[in-house]
Design a protein that fits this description.
With about 375 residues, the protein is an alpha+beta fold. Among the domains are: about 55 residues, no CATH class; about 130 residues, Glucose Permease (Domain IIA), CATH 2.70.70. It is built from 9 helices and 15 strands. The strands form 3 sheets. Strands 5, 6, 7, 8, 9, 10, 11, 12, 13, 14 and 15 form an 11-stranded antiparallel β-sheet that branches. A two-stranded antiparallel sheet has the order 1-2.
Length: about 375
């Protein structure tokens, strides 16, 4: 059976007529058979024309052999560059938006997922918490008091009083602007001839406690070795106290003498490594404690273990030091020694003398910088010392 190809308008007419006929099922079958032959014929003729055009183009290119290769390559390169310029910023902005959404979601769901257990990221979070040393303004709201504002920022009321030239009898009003320091203490403008020692003394710190000014990570110096200051610069004096403020200067002393000897194997608990007083505690930028004694004195191993560092091998700020591996995941560091009295690889008992207190490396006075590490993470020694 043969068919004449119809135009699209005739096809629609045939569809409508087929449903009005009493033999519509038979005629529908014949109609769809017709459609199959119709589209096959149209498709075959279109494909034949395409093959003819393709053959002409291929023959032309073959005869010219590479003559058009360079223009095609240049046009393709220009097209790719154009697409990158137009679409690149859109793709990048979408990717950045997705990363921000993922970071937000992870931080909301779990702080551990956002920052992990890695010491570096935890320390970075601590720096972020203290605003990178930034001093921020606070507009007093209705009903706020100096103590409530201090609690909001985790500071002592005296820190806010000193920074804003207020007294305990001062009244604050809604809309008043207060300057908020990142840590407790005093902000000081350096005068001609001042040093970190004279500044520390002015705010109740002795020569060993002046180490806190050096260790505060957002204080800057003209020379990191001599701690030279520039006239007019500002320094934060952590835990500094204005002498005319009526606030008692706090001093912390070691209350327990260190033992003379200990167990042969590590116990996982630690004795005091030196006698003296704590001049600087554990904080986000100083993950250790400093024990100072003007007379110096011996430094003891806080627990039994093996010496893995002894001396000043890298000329770093720790100075002469000893690092002891206790074999149970813990390690202890003793820095700024004047004399090291153990050797690498040596096994020592709890309470053995390992050196003498000094002021080598990045140090402002005779003291011991003491660290306790577990799995590479620096812990607060004051919570672990006996």
């Amino acid at each position: 059976m043969g068919y004449n190809y119809l135009v699209p308008k005739d096809i629609m007419s045939k569809i409508l007529l087929s449903f009005k006929s009493p033999n519509w099922l038979k005629e529908s079958f014949e109609f769809f058979t017709f459609l199959r032959f119709y589209f096959r014929g149209r498709g075959y003729r279109g494909f034949t024309k395409f093959e003819v055009v393709k053959s002409v183009v291929v023959d032309l290119l073959y005869k010219k052999r590479g003559k058009y290769a360079r223009p095609f390559l240049h046009l393709g390169t220009i097209g790719l560059v154009f697409a990158a310029i137009i679409l690149g910023p859109i793709i990048v902005s979408q990717a950045e938006g997705e990363e921000e959404r993922q970071a937000t979601n992870s931080s909301v769901l779990s702080p551990v997922a956002a920052y992990g257990q890695n010491f570096t990221t935890l320390q970075a979070e601590a720096v972020r918490q203290y605003r990178g040393g930034e001093i921020i303004p606070h507009l007093v709201q209705e009903g706020e008091t100096l103590s409530s504002i201090a609690d909001r920022y985790g500071l002592q009321t005296s820190t806010i009083l000193w920074e804003n030239d207020l007294t305990e009898s001062s009244k604050i009003k809604p809309g008043q602007e207060l300057k908020i320091l990142p840590v407790d203490g005093v902000r000081h403008k350096v005068q001609r001839g001042e040093t970190i020692y004279s500044i520390g003394k002015k705010y109740g710190l002795d020569d060993t406690q002046a180490q806190t000014i050096v260790d505060y990570p957002f204080n800057e110096f003209l020379n990191d070795e001599t701690f030279e200051l520039a006239t007019g610069q500002y320094l934060i004096v952590p835990d500094g106290v204005k002498r005319d403020s009526g606030v008692t200067i706090r001093s912390t002393y070691a209350t327990k003498l260190t033992p003379d000897a200990g167990a042969v194997t590590a116990l996982g608990s630690f004795v005091w490594p030196a006698s003296g007083r704590i001049t600087q505690g554990y904080r986000f930028y100083h993950k250790a404690i400093d024990i100072a004694n003007r007379a110096g004195g011996p430094i003891l191993a806080a627990d039994s273990g093996t010496v893995v560092i002894a001396g000043w091998p890298d000329n770093s700020g720790y100075g002469s030091r000893v690092l002891i591996d206790h074999g149970n995941g813990f390690a202890t560091m003793y820095a700024h020694m004047s004399l090291v009295q153990v050797a690498m690889g040596q096994r020592i008992n709890r309470g053995d003398v390992i050196g003498q207190m000094g002021s080598t490396g990045r140090s402002t006075g005779t003291h011991l910088h003491f660290e306790i590490r577990k799995g590479g993470v620096l812990l607060d020694p004051s919570t672990l010392l006996q």
